[in-house]
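Ticket #4471: structure output looks truncated?

Reporter: J.K.
Steps to reproduce: submitted the chain below (107 residues) through the standard prediction queue, then opened the result file.
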Amino acid sequence: MPGFVARHGDLKAKGVDEIWCVATNDAFVMGAWGKDQKVDGKIRMLADGSAVYTKALGLELDLVARGMGTRIQRFSALVQDGVVKAINVEAPGKFEVSDADTMLKQA
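Returned output as attached by the reporter:
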């Protein structure tokens, strides 16, 4: 998320209206995370505590055996007028394609 905070102006200049951060946490955790990361209205923090949205996207990650329940895979997506133009799903344990620089290239 720090990259999206730092590149917020660049993304807006490319025509990005909003940046969303979705996680399988509750609204209180998302609020605290956003505050800690100083998103200051640059990123909309969205809670998916029951993983309903995550499962609808087909991006659930089963970490029940590790005591973490259902989580969402790390990804970024460029959505224009409700149509997904690009989706970048990370391989397990990786952070190579879902970053702000990739989104800038795709915008």
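Triage note (M.O.): checked the attachment and the full token line is present. Residues 1 and 37 are 8 Å apart (CA to CA).
Status: closed, working as intended.
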